[in-house]
Design goal:
With 254 residues, the protein is an alpha+beta fold. The chain has two domains: 60 residues, no CATH class; 143 residues, Muramoyl-pentapeptide Carboxypeptidase, domain 2, CATH 3.30.1380. The chain is built from eight helices and eight strands. The strands form three sheets. It has a four-stranded antiparallel beta sheet.
């Protein structure tokens, strides 16, 4: 008799435990479903408000509080942000062959003059504005150079992209970038490089591709490549220790 009572109690306890487990499972499922519906609703609302852009068949959500930067001095040109097809620019000559954006050429010329006044005479502009057609020639020539050395087309494109961007993806096509002297890393050992590091910001220029920022810029270290952004931005970028990609994101979200 006692054994029967114990068995009944045991079975009842098991039933109660099973009922509790089932109840908890149902509650959890309801909560998870509600959370899923909330997330789905948020995503649908984001897309219904057109807060997204499509680039190369990839959809990128733009946060509602992200500001649009419209300063011409801060136009970002890289592999992810090519020049728009309708891009136009008014140029002015640096010398008989090289040109720069007319709105910024005054600061460039003044900077070079001040460098020479301070005793830095071994300085010249190797490259400035490039048309997209000329950029294509440079890019194709470098690809062919690597191919002639035995690289595959994929390898040649990867190696070329470390230093030469595709047409429309180079800052030189923008007209706000300048390469100095022989365009090699030895430039960092010159008086001109030292002077630029100390003074370029006073004329609105930044070293565009620092070594420690190469993973962000997507371009290997280029001590010879300097970009005009305007004094108000060159000072701030140095203060924040930011490259242009970081600085634009900072401005967009603050």
């Amino acid at each position: 008799m006692k054994n029967n009572i114990k068995n009944k109690r045991g079975k009842n306890n098991i039933k109660i435990i099973l009922i509790l487990i089932l109840s908890i499972s149902i509650i959890l499922m309801i909560l998870l479903y509600k959370k899923f519906k909330e997330n789905k609703s948020n995503i649908e609302e984001t897309f219904s408000n057109n807060n997204y852009i499509e680039k190369n068949n990839v959809i990128e959500v733009v946060l509602p509080n992200k500001k649009k930067i419209e300063d011409w001095k801060l136009v970002l040109v890289n592999k992810e942000n090519p020049l728009p097809e309708n891009f136009t620019i008014e140029l002015e000559n640096i010398d008989s062959t090289k040109q720069f954006d007319k709105r910024a050429i005054g600061e460039l010329k003044q900077m070079i003059q001040e460098m020479k006044k301070s005793g830095v005479n071994n300085i010249w502009v190797q490259s400035a504005y490039r048309s997209t057609e000329y950029q294509k020639t440079l890019y194709d020539n470098k690809i062919n150079d690597y191919l002639s050395k035995g690289a595959t087309i994929e390898e040649a494109e990867i190696l070329t992209s470390e230093y030469i961007n595709k047409p429309g993806e180079s800052e030189h096509n923008l007209g706000l970038a300048v390469d100095f002297n022989n365009v090699d890393n030895d430039f960092e050992n010159t008086k001109a490089y030292t002077w630029l590091n100390e003074n370029a910001k006073n004329y609105g220029f930044i070293m565009r591709y620092p070594e420690e920022k190469s993973e962000i810029t997507g371009v290997e270290y280029e001590p010879w490549h300097w970009r005009y952004v305007g004094k108000e931005h060159s000072y701030k970028m140095e203060e924040l220790n930011m490259c242009l990609e970081e600085y634009i994101e900072f401005l967009e979200t603050n």
